[in-house]
Write a structure and sequence with these properties.
Elements (H helix, E strand, L loop, with lengths): L1 H18 L7 E8 L7 E4 L2 E4 L2 E6 L2 E6 L15 E4 L6 E4 L4 E8 L5 E7 L8 E7 L5 E6 H9 L10 E8 L2 E7 L6 E8 L4 E8 L1
Antiparallel strand pairs: 1-2, 1-8, 3-4, 4-5, 5-6, 6-7, 8-9, 9-10, 10-11, 12-13, 13-14, 14-15
Length: 209
């Protein structure tokens, strides 16, 4: 009987690992970078222009769109000049806040979900941002995490510049996205975002080095 339960438990573990969603290796699609000090115009590398002020990164349906003025001027964000990325439908996009530029990386899965890591550049590591988006089977985009929210939730509003964490790199492990951070004062660490198939969302675990 004990042997039977041991075999049954082992089969359950194998079964769960077989059905876990798997991520492909990340593929860089391209970037949008500011061309002058005014930060009003962005140079597109790796993407294709769809129409005036709109570019897409990727191919076919699995594409992410980047909107810049005049396409987004006086848009639904209520700003005079602003920039956004996400779906080809402007109403399903996310506000782009970096003045310097951003890079788009695609992660395929073995299910009807495509992930995009958006890296927003800043003048130093403590200001750079990482946003993980997902394109669902119906073409809509969702935001799974934003490193700005992680700083606020896990580190608080620190007034000491040296205490502000900087996100240094990210990578994929199976069905998990790992985002590492460094601190000039104190220990660094990482956040692990593991896909939860039941919740259809990512769980979050923080590990301090």
């Amino acid at each position: 009987m004990r042997k039977f339960f041991g075999i049954f438990f082992a089969l359950m573990l194998i079964s769960s690992s077989c059905f876990a969603m798997k991520f492909s290796q990340p593929v860089k699609l391209g970037n949008a970078s500011s061309v002058d000090a005014s930060f009003d115009v962005y140079k597109i590398e790796g993407g294709t222009q769809v129409r005036d002020g709109v570019s897409k990164f990727g191919s076919g349906e699995d594409s992410i769109y980047f909107f810049q003025s005049p396409a987004v001027e006086k848009n639904h964000y209520g700003m005079g000049r602003s920039y956004a990325y996400g779906s080809k439908n402007l109403e399903n996009t996310f506000l782009f806040l970096s003045a310097y530029g951003c890079e788009f990386t695609q992660i395929k899965t073995d299910e009807n979900l495509t992930l995009y890591m958006v890296h927003e550049w800043e003048f130093d590591i403590r200001g750079e941002k990482y946003i993980l988006l997902g394109r669902l089977s119906d073409g809509s985009f969702v935001k799974y995490f934003d490193s700005r929210d992680l700083k606020s939730k896990y580190f608080g509003e620190s007034t000491r510049r040296a205490d502000v964490p900087g996100f240094s790199k990210w990578y994929c492990e199976g069905d998990t996205v790992v985002l590492e951070y460094k601190r000039y004062s104190g220990n660094g660490g990482e956040f692990r975002f593991k896909w939860d198939d039941a919740a259809q969302w990512f769980s979050i675990e923080q590990i301090v080095y």
